[in-house]
Amino acid sequence: MNNQNPSTSFPPKARLARGGRIKAFAPIAIILIIVGVLVVAGGAYYFLLFTSCQNGEYVCGQIIVNFNNNFKKSDALVFFQKLDLQLDSANYFMDESPSAFFSVKEQDSLEFILSELNKEPEVKKCYENPGIRPAVCDFKNDITENEIKKILDKYQLLYNDDDIYIWDYYVVKVKPGTEKQWIEDLKEYSEVESATLNYISYPTSQ
Questions:
Q1: Is the N or the C terminus of the chain less surrounded, counting Cβ atoms within 10 Å?
Q2: C-alpha distances in angstroms, 141 versus 94, 96, 123, 148, 154?
């Protein structure tokens, strides 16, 4: 007499079909487990980053990006737009004119050189300056540091790199907790000279 329970007894072919379905779903289950582990690990990683920024080690949701000397402001704006990044309101001085302080050689006429400099298309205004450097030029906003140096060198003016003032870094908004990942990603671009956390100001601007 067959005492097998009908509800749990399967013909050989049925058992094989059932086993085949289990084997078919096994790779999917493994993949789901791996994805779950990665999600949990990633969440823990970003939680630690967010905790660091919340503790005041750096400004949450901000990074500072500096470009090389051949990069204009208009180039930077296009660069950020392509990456869907927005500038933070902390870019207080971005619209100020770049400027350069300089001296002239002893045998040269400052008045004449200022007159010639004011004819340069990239120059807004050059004028005498009562300071260590007797003259200064204000330039149009969308100019690079290298272009400024090229103009100054054209007239054999005397200056140091510290005499050139140009907005060459940008405070960029990112999702809090992703600051360090964005920094690593941005460093892969040749035009980016540096990308860092914002240790300058705290708290973050609204």
A1: N
A2: 9, 7, 10, 11, 20
pTM here is 0.62
* Domain assignment present for 153: yes
Residue 166 to residue 177: CA distance in whole angstroms: 30
Q: Which two tokens stand for residue 64?
A: 């500072």
Question: Which tokens sit at 19?
Answer: 């086993």
**Which residue range(s) make up the domain with 107?**
101-163
Q: Rounded to 10 degrees, what is the CA torsion of 85, 89, 91, 95?
A: 100
For the record, the structure tokens of 12 come out as 């050989």
**Residues 1-11: b if buried by 16+ CB within 10 A, e if exposed:** eeeeeeeeeee
- pLDDT tens for 68-116 read 888 888 899 899 999 999 988 767 666 788 999 999 999 999 999 999 9
Domains identified in the chain, total number = 1
